[in-house]
Design a protein that fits this description.
The chain has helices spanning about 10-35, 85-95, 135-145; strands at about 50-55, 60-65, 70-75, 75-80, 105-115, 115-120, 125-130, 150-160, 170, 180-185. About 25% of the residues lie in helices and about 25% in strands. By secondary structure, it is α+β, with helices and mostly antiparallel strands. It contains 3 helices and 10 strands; from the N terminus they run αββββαβββαβββ. The chain has a 5-stranded mixed sheet, covered by helices on one side. Strands 2-1-5 form a 3-stranded antiparallel sheet, with helices on one face. Strands 3-4 form a two-stranded antiparallel ribbon. Strand 6 and strand 7 (about 125-130) form a beta hairpin.
Length: about 190
């Protein structure tokens, strides 16, 4: 065997170092999700997700969610993922693989790219922009090349993507945005 020349202590140390690295990556991902409010983030159309099943390359994939909100996953068929959290999707895939296909599947789902947010009104370049965790209204305006001369920095409204009533809410420059949000910057009257 190729490992026979290595001491058992060296193998054990390498294994523990690998485990610490994997746990560190999961810890940082969870911490980033908590800090940005992403732990309760609901997947939706436009999100790009990555599914990894460790040790099973055939079951790992990256896909963008379409308007249908469905993904076609090996062995499990179509799964509706729109409205699920990352943790719920992980559990769904783990539960689906566990009884018939894998004894102890190690499934990790992450968001590779969030759906865009939109900014319109009195900004120099209105439109859709890629969402980034920690994005505030002020940073969104900067991505849109700043406010126009007529912009009112005190009349900014956001329609949250997860609000079924689509009611505009008045916000300030430090308000955190979420993927799919629509920001409107109104005109100043003087």
């Amino acid at each position: 065997m190729a490992f026979s020349s290595l001491g058992q202590g060296a193998l054990r140390s390498a294994f523990f170092a690998f485990c610490a690295l994997v746990l560190g990556v999961f810890s940082l991902t969870a911490q980033a999700q908590e800090e940005t409010g992403q732990s309760d983030y609901r997947l939706g159309s436009g999100d790009r997700i990555q599914i990894k099943v460790y040790g099973e390359d055939d079951l790992s994939l990256e896909t963008q969610l379409t308007d249908s909100g469905m993904i076609n996953y090996p062995f499990l068929g179509e799964i509706r993922v729109t409205g699920m959290t990352v943790a719920q999707l992980e559990a769904r895939i783990t539960d689906g693989l566990k009884p018939d296909y894998l004894v102890k599947p190690n499934v990790h789902v992450s968001i590779a790219e969030f759906r865009p947010f939109f900014i319109n009104g009195e900004v120099k370049k209105p439109g859709g922009y890629p969402f980034q965790p920690g994005l505030t209204v002020g940073k969104a305006a900067a991505l849109a090349e700043g406010f126009t001369e007529r912009a009112s920095e005190s009349k900014i409204f956001v329609v949250r993507s997860d609000d079924p009533s689509q009611t505009p809410v008045k916000v300030d420059l430090n308000t955190l945005l979420r993927p799919g949000d629509i920001v409107t910057v109104e005109q100043s009257f003087f």
